[in-house]
């Protein structure tokens, strides 16, 4: 990878974590795909050659289990969902250059080619392992056919992941007290030969890779536990019929693990794109095999390990290029709570469109409501606020005012030069936009576009051209027409249809999607007509009340129909069916935080908390725990050992010497066999540690 500032002369590919072909899409699922689409469009706006690819993940036990329940073949079941995704994504202007699936011939052949290359390079070995077996069903139990207790944290776990506890990847035979999901009976472990990819071969390589990797901080920090610890080899075969056959002799009755063929679909989909457009337009081998390229993965944060440990090892072992960046998005919550598909507590993709809302409104909200790696807290009220206050009042209002005045008074662009002040303002916005994208910060890039429109609104309001004669008004309106063009270009990746409408109002030729950032300062057309209305319609309060009432009624109806059903958190569709749980957004401003609790405590209750300034003397990860660190903290009167969930979010070396806020009179606890005497306070899912404004001494009481 080049790691040069974007745009580079190298071809780029942006991929999105494959949606798992196992259920309907809601707006929580759409966040990753909208983010990937915005990023790929933005890179093209910078002038970067970019392909945007993905595909449906068709294999794995959840699909086989659900297909069996429906009485259909796994292929028919998965294809039905794949076709739904193919139809849904374009409705939100998620414009993949190629969208395939893991069961097609291209991916099957390329996956087997990868495995043969690993074998040729001596990265694969065979080993007898314990695999769960159901004697009553006379069947092996891979992955989600078995559940039981996690060997690391003791929580309930399913198949290949501890989805209710420590989130660790689990290998066959790891589950304690296994139970068959087919019959509900206890399973037994039997010896079985399986194939393994020797990840330990890549440990030194991964240590360097994770330090080169760009993208979001959670993708850079979370994998260090696995990479810097004892890296366990990956079992790459499963005992089932549904999947890609293991190539070669001696494994005819085994298929490849879903996490082998799923990421290889990134390569396969890129290859299919080349086969359609030709190597002169885009050469997949130059991206994945030859020279420098810019490979950027946009995924959900629940599959970071797979993309920063498994996937780079798979690529390295087969002689392919490594990713330049991994950008892991947070989840989307619904009014402070996780989506619950079992209770129908979700905003479904088709439902959003059926309500008559333009897709650009949701695209803008999902891409700019919070930073890439933070959760987005959706509610109809927050959605209304962002649409009304930013898109309608700022962008739409500015475009309409500027072009209406220009068309009525000058028949288009006034015949004067752009002022130096406005040219500098647009140039600064272009630089800020480019800087944001090089930081993979699409939220800030979107804010740059809206800020430029806000500047234009203030400019018109301050100059009051309607009070000036034409000679005096001409420079003001000339500037504003140029600002409209710049806003259209910069906002295009976020609201492609509405930005193109603004482009057309200017009588610009072609589509704004083909414009690059340099066009922001190119001359505007001499003549254009008056706009016939605003770009964005406001959402009124009655509409929001109606939408909330519909959601509440639907949830109540579902709960009444199934009163005993346990609440299940929203299912992620990104290359796994593991259920996802996340807290609401905590640090992105009033529109994106969880509502304050109505339950109050007395001042006397607050005084019972003994909050002290502490200084972290040392920090180290707790073996076997994904999230936990053991801290030694000086609180003035003594030094305490405190366990904190910082492992995936902070480097141990960076914590030493940091001042923090400690709850000193919390009851002692034991976590993962380690005593914890106190609590370190932090904000949000990224564990933003609370500290002091100045250098208060350890032990200072917080009042």
From TrEMBL:
Q: Where in the cell is it found?
A: Cytoplasm
Kindly give the Pfam families that the UniProt entry links to this protein.
Anticodon_3, tRNA-synt_1g, tRNA_bind
Q: How is the cofactor bound?
A: Binds 1 zinc ion per subunit.
Annotated positions binding ATP: 341
Task: Please verify whether the record's keywords include Nucleotide-binding.
Answer: yes
User: Motif 'HIGH' region: which residue numbers?
Assistant: 19-29
Query: What is the similarity comment for this entry?
Result: Belongs to the class-I aminoacyl-tRNA synthetase family. MetG type 1 subfamily.
Functional description taken from the UniProt entry: Is required not only for elongation of protein synthesis but also for the initiation of all mRNA translation through initiator tRNA(fMet) aminoacylation.
Q: Report the protein name in the record.
A: Methionine--tRNA ligase
Q: Which organism is it from?
A: Halocalculus aciditolerans
């Amino acid at each position: 990878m080049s790691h040069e500032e974007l745009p580079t002369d190298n071809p780029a590919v942006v991929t999105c974590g494959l949606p798992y072909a196992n259920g309907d899409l809601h707006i929580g699922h759409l966040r990753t795909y909208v983010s990937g689409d915005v990023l790929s469009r933005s890179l093209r706006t910078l002038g970067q050659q970019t392909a945007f690819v993905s595909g449906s993940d068709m294999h794995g036990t959840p699909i086989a289990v659900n297909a069996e329940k429906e009485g259909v073949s796994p292929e028919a079941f998965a294809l039905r969902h794949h076709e739904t995704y193919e139809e849904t994504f374009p409705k939100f202007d998620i414009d993949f250059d190629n969208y395939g699936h893991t069961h097609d011939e291209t991916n099957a052949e390329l996956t087997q080619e990868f495995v043969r290359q690993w074998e040729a390079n001596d990265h694969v070995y065979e080993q007898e392992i314990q695999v769960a077996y159901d004697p009553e069903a006379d069947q092996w139990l891979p992955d989600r056919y078995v559940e039981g207790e996690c060997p690391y944290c003791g929580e309930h776990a399913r198949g290949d992941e501890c989805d209710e506890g420590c989130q660790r990847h689990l290998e066959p035979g790891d589950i304690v007290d296994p139970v068959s999901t087919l019959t509900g009976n206890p399973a037994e472990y039997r010896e079985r030969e399986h194939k393994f990819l020797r990840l330990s071969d890549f440990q030194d390589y991964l240590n360097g890779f994770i330090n080169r990797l760009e993208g979001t901080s959670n993708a850079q920090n979370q994998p260090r536990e696995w990479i810097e610890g004892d890296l366990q080899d990956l079992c790459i075969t499963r005992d089932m019929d549904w999947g890609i056959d293991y190539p070669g002799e001696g494994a005819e009755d085994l298929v490849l693990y879903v996490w082998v063929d799923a990421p290889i679909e990134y390569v396969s989909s890129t290859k299919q794109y080349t086969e359609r457009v030709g190597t002169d337009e885009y050469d997949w081998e130059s991206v994945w095999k030859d020279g420098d390229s810019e490979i950027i993965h946009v995924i959900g944060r629940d599959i970071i390990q797979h993309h920063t440990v498994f996937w780079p090892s798979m690529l390295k072992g087969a002689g392919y290029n490594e990713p330049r960046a991994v950008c892991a998005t947070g989840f989307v919550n619904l009014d402070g709570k996780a989506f619950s598909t079992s209770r129908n507590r979700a905003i479904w993709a088709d439902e959003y469109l059926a309500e008559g809302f333009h897709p650009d409104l949701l695209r803008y909200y999902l891409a700019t409501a919070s930073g890439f790696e933070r959760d987005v807290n959706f509610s109809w009220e927050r959605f209304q606020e962002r649409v009304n206050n930013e898109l309608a009042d700022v962008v739409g209002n500015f475009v309409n005012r500027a072009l209406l005045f220009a068309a009525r008074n000058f028949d288009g662009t006034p015949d004067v030069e752009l002022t130096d002040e406005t040219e500098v303002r647009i140039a600064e916005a272009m630089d800020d936009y480019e800087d944001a994208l090089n930081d993979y910060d699409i939220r800030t890039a979107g804010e740059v576009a809206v800020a430029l429109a806000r500047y234009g609104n203030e400019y018109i309001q301050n100059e009051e051209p309607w009070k000036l004669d034409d000679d005096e008004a001409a420079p003001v309106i000339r500037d504003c027409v140029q600002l409209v063009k710049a806003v259209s270009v910069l906002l295009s990746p976020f609201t492609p249809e509405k930005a193109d409408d603004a482009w057309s109002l200017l009588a610009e030729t072609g589509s704004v999607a083909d414009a690059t950032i340099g066009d922001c300062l190119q001359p505007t057309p001499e003549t254009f007509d008056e706009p016939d209305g605003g770009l964005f319609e406001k959402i009124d309060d009655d509409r929001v009340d109606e939408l909330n009432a519909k959601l509440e009624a639907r949830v109540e109806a579902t709960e009444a129909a199934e009163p005993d059903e346990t609440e299940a958190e929203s299912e992620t569709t990104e290359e796994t069916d593991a259920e996802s749980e996340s807290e609401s957004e905590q640090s992105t401003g009033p529109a994106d935080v969880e509502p304050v609790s109505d339950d109050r405590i007395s001042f006397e209750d607050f005084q019972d908390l003994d909050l002290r300034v502490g200084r972290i003397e040392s920090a180290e990860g707790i073996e076997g725990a994904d999230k936990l660190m053991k801290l030694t903290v000086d609180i003035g009167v003594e030094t305490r050992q405190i366990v904190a969930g910082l492992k995936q979010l902070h480097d141990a070396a960076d914590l030493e010497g940091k001042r923090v806020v400690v709850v000193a009179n919390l009851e002692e606890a034991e976590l993962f066999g380690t005593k914890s005497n106190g609590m370190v306070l932090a904000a949000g899912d990224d564990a933003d540690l609370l500290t002091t404004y100045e250098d208060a001494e350890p032990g200072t009481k917080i009042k």
